[in-house]
Amino acid sequence: MTVIVLSGPIGAGKSSLTGILSKYLGTKPFYESVDDNPVLPLFYADPKKYAFLLQVYFLNTRFHSIKDALTEDNNVLDRSIYEDALFFQMNADIGRATSEEVDTYYELLHNMMNELERMPKKNPDLLVHINVSYDTMIKRIKKRGRPYEQLSYDSTLEDYYKRLLRYYKPWYENYDYSPKMEIDGDKLDFMANPADRQVVLNQITDKLKEMGKLPEDWKKPTDIQIEA
Ligand SMILES: Nc1ncnc2c1ncn2[C@@H]1O[C@H](COP(=O)(O)OP(=O)(O)OP(=O)(O)O)[C@@H](O)[C@H]1O
Ligand SMILES: Nc1nc(=O)c2ncn([C@H]3C[C@H](O)[C@@H](CO)O3)c2[nH]1
């Protein structure tokens, strides 16, 4: 059983790489709840009012996915539960949560993480972190086109996104729930460039091989279909 989680800031390419990697490895993808998330547009319209609700919503959906992923064989998860606190802490630091909400959130997170301790598998096998610069992040957010994430929607988003990148650096450095590796999301266009895509896939499968975690029956596919 091999469980891989992807991490990285907004628009880094986690969902895209989750799709590519799960096809390449022949495993099941688990996606973060975004287009079906009723709280996300509310949060971007009024962050102070909805930061706590959004966090509880994400924590709940992530907990569902992680429970399924850690009991089934061979999965790839788009964003880890370990990034949840990063987002909430950042929102709390900029005054979008009361101290009661902060305390309640951390208690709930702690409680849920304790539940994971009882799972047959507690942690992922590998964290794949996609590094991107601010410019790349904004380019991808524009390309994807969710209206409420655009800088034109809210002038404070530039600061929010830059701050998020600053929070990610120490988060990745301190992450120690599993082995980890970084992908250069600025240089490697794994969506449009097949050679770059193969570089990324080789980096990940080399790491899995080195760890003895490449599924035994895995055969390198000759071609995989990518949805743009
Ligand atoms: N390496 C890449 N090169 C070029 N385009 C990319 C790359 N990765 C992602 N994209 C494009 O950038 C956009 C955002 O990618 P994606 O939705 O996968 O990001 P994400 O990390 O899952 O974002 P979020 O955190 O918001 O869910 C998409 O339009 C995707 O096609
Ligand atoms: N506030 C907040 N907390 C989270 O845990 C969290 N996880 C993701 N997101 C936002 C970022 C993208 O807009 C969009 C897709 O990743 O959802 C979050 N926002």
UniProtKB/TrEMBL annotation:
Keyword annotations of the record: ATP-binding, Kinase, Nucleotide-binding, Transferase
SUPFAM superfamilies xref list: P-loop containing nucleoside triphosphate hydrolases
Keyword rRNA processing included in the entry's annotation: no
Chain ranges passing through the membrane: none
Positions annotated to bind substrate: 32, 44, 55, 79, 84, 149
Listed InterPro entries: DCK/DGK, Deoxyribonucleoside_kinase, DNK_dom, P-loop_NTPase
Record-listed ATP binding positions: 8-16, 140-144, 188-190
Pfam family, one: dNK
Tagged with keyword ATP-binding: yes
Entry similarity comment: Belongs to the DCK/DGK family.
Biological source species: Lactobacillus gallinarum
Span of the signal peptide: none
Entry's Gene Ontology cellular component terms: cytoplasm
Protein name in the entry: Deoxynucleoside kinase
Active site: 78
GO molecular function list: ATP binding; deoxynucleoside kinase activity
Residue ranges of every copy of the Deoxynucleoside kinase domain listed in the record: 4-206
